[in-house]
Write a structure and sequence with these properties.
Blueprint lengths: L7 E3 L13 E4 L5 E5 L20 E3 L3 H21 L3 H16 L9 H11 L1 H11 L9 H18 L4 H13 L9 H5 L6 H8 L1 H10 L6 H9 L18 H16 L11 H13 L5 H10 L2
Antiparallel strand pairs: 1-4, 2-3
The structure holds fe (ii) ion (2 copies).
One fe (ii) ion binds next to loops.
Length: 308
């Protein structure tokens, strides 16, 4: 017998005030779901005091996507304020919320919401480049795919700025970077978090995040093919030693994201099983990969200069 998914899913407490179109429900003592907040009203507008909220509120599973869109919209408004107030910590926290919400159900209808997020970062970059550059340096305790993706995006937008990309290209590379590991949402979290060397089977599953990501993005309404290719090819190497297909003809965006991806993974300070590497040491290591033909020398050099 096929497992049926629950009809109601919990609504995150910190986001309850964001829902207007989505009705919210509570569970009564006999475990029936009862309407708590109708569509068209926000909780705050119902003027109910915080303490009187039921302990847990739910939404219908069929409303989940609509809920994600409402949350993304509110957080994007918040992000604009955070960028303008020049506070890298707030910008990063808001970004974490947006990407977490999006990656909770990464599919057509939710992924598109972060196009606006990247647009905000790119269009304000010229004015607020320090805040966005500093995003990478703001450390968060719990290192996850979400944080890694945000860091890679911040570095990639910095790269694009340094190389004088057009605004449209900056938007594309920002999305390539933010979404490059979206396929990891389909990989068993035990494998993702394993603080040890993976078994061969586990490593094969891990490698499949490239294909999972490509498949997720193919179904989405994205404007640029490069974004899908970056998810598929960011672990490929120019000498054919990468995965999943060992191709040597790698899209430019995938090459840039691939190099920055390695740099970020080497230098982040939040992995429990090893110390972070100093930037210069990480660049020296990547330089070896340039010499052995894995990465493009031109991209490597541009990236190194973009860090200054
Ligand atoms: Fe990856
Ligand atoms: Fe990555």
């Amino acid at each position: 017998m096929a497992l049926s998914l629950p009809k109601y899913v919990p609504a995150r407490k910190s986001q309850l005030n964001f829902y207007r179109a989505v009705p919210l429900y509570y569970q009564n003592q006999s475990k029936d779901f009862m309407l708590y907040k109708p569509a068209g009203l926000k909780l705050t507008e119902m003027r109910i005091e915080q303490e009187r909220y039921p302990e847990k509120l739910y939404m219908k599973r069929i409303d989940k996507l609509r809920g994600i869109r409402e949350v993304q919209k509110e957080f994007n408004l918040q992000l604009k304020i955070d960028i303008q107030s020049n506070n890298a910590i707030n910008v990063k926290n808001t970004l974490v919320n947006i990407v977490q919400e999006t990656f909770s159900e990464p599919r057509s209808g939710s992924i598109e919401g972060i196009i606006e997020t990247v647009k905000l970062l790119v269009s304000d970059f010229a004015k607020e480049s320090e805040v966005i550059k500093n995003l990478f340096r703001v450390s968060n305790k719990d290192y996850t795919t979400v944080l890694h993706s945000i860091n890679v995006m911040a570095l990639a937008i910095g790269y694009a700025h340094h190389e004088n990309f057009s605004t449209a290209e900056k938007k594309v590379i920002g999305l390539c970077a933010l979404l490059h590991d979206v396929g990891k949402t389909k990989v068993n979290s035990g494998i993702l978090k394993a603080p040890r060397k993976l078994t061969d089977d586990e490593f094969e599953e891990m490698k499949a995040h490239t294909i999972y990501g490509y498949e997720i993005l193919v179904k989405c309404n994205l404007f640029n093919h490069e974004i899908k290719l970056a998810a598929l090819q960011h672990h490929e190497k120019l000498d054919g030693s990468g995965y999943p297909k060992k191709v040597t003809d790698i899209s430019r965006m995938a090459q840039i994201v691939g190099l920055i991806d390695c740099y970020e993974a080497l230098t982040n300070d939040d992995r429990p099983y090893r110390d972070p590497m100093a930037p210069l040491r990480a660049l020296t290591l990547l330089k070896d990969d340039v010499v052995s033909g894995k990465f493009s020398r031109r991209i490597f050099e541009k990236f190194a200069y973009s860090l200054i």
